[in-house]
Design a protein that fits this description.
The protein is mainly alpha-helical. The protein folds into two domains: 40 residues; 74 residues. Helices cover 92% and strands 0% of the residues. The chain starts with a helix and ends with a helix. The relative contact order is 0.03.
């Protein structure tokens, strides 16, 4: 009986160590692939000279990105200003809603009063 438990425990440990080894191997392969992806390609390694035309092209690309970022910042500032306007209008909107609630409450009270009067007058007939 104890021998069976020992065999089951050894088999479980063996299975667990095999799974752990598989995970470690998988992680190592992913690490190796990420390092390979970071290595320069053969074509870029062959092109060791950086020409003036390459520099101009890179500067143009950076200027284009800067223009896009500036435009995005302007859009964000416009949205922020719009949100500020909305936030400043909240107390006015709340006050208007409170007035509407008060008016509705008064109308309901008036209707209830009228219903009570009608029900009393119908009661006497």
């Amino acid at each position: 009986m104890n021998t069976n438990k020992i065999c089951i425990a050894v088999a479980a440990l063996s299975l667990l160590s095999t799974a752990a080894l598989g995970v470690i191997t998988y992680q190592q392969q992913n690490y190796i692939q990420s390092i390979k992806a970071q290595l320069p390609k053969k074509e870029s390694a062959k092109k060791a000279t950086y020409t003036l035309q390459d520099a101009k092209s890179d500067i143009d690309a950076l200027q284009s990105k800067m223009s896009y970022l500036e435009s995005s910042v302007d859009d964000l500032e416009a949205h922020l200003n719009s949100l500020d306007d909305d936030v400043s209008n909240i107390p006015i909107r709340v006050a208007g809603l409170e007035d509407d609630i008060d008016a509705t409450r008064a109308s309901l009270n008036s209707l209830i009063y009228q219903l009570n009067l009608n029900s009393r007058s119908n009661y006497y007939y």
